[in-house]
Write a structure and sequence with these properties.
Layout (H helix, E strand, L loop, with lengths): L2 H17 E5 L14 E5 L10 E5 L2 E3 L2 E3 L14 E9 L22 E5 L9 H4 L2 E2 L3 E5 L11
């Protein structure tokens, strides 16, 4: 490969990393939509996701018995942070649906600049019912509909 080819390859990888992220599903929280080992592609977005969207969000850091997002918002190079794949249940200004009630009670208003996320398999999901509202700036990207690569090759 020529030097210009390597330079172009590095430029292309950087450009793609700024727009897309590939995530491997861990755990059962999104079954039956996604299974452990499935890989999904998420497009980094600057707009607020809507209820029903599946998103990749930064997992909070546990400090004592409290969850917090004390680190700066994630960027394209932050591959060492923990991420969660969840479905958006409500966004800022919406009423909290019963399925997402927990830290916030059903019928309360979701604070501006935040959203509530839940897993499709609630019995196995650690989500906004336990963590509370997620700051919108902690959304990594919106999962794009696609034929995903299954862990069992089925």
């Amino acid at each position: 490969m020529t030097r210009s080819g390597r330079t172009y390859g590095a430029w292309l990888r950087t450009r793609l990393a700024r727009r897309w992220v590939s995530v491997t599903v861990e755990g059962d929280s999104m079954r039956p939509t996604f299974n452990p080992g499935d890989r999904v592609l998420a497009r980094r977005v600057k707009t607020t996701p809507q209820a029903g969207d599946i998103v990749v969000v930064e997992a909070p850091v546990l400090l004592g018995n409290r969850s917090t997002w004390h680190l700066p918002p994630p960027g394209p190079g932050d591959l060492d942070r923990r991420w969660l794949i969840k479905r958006v249940a409500a966004v800022g200004g919406d009423l909290v649906p019963a399925a997402a009630a927990g830290v916030l009670a059903a019928g309360e208003v979701v604070p501006p600049g935040s959203l509530l996320v839940v897993g499709d398999n609630p019995a196995h999901s650690h989500d906004s019912r336990h963590l509370g509202p997620i700051p919108v700036d902690r959304v990594i990207g919106r999962v794009v509909p696609s034929r995903r690569i299954r862990s069992d090759f089925s």
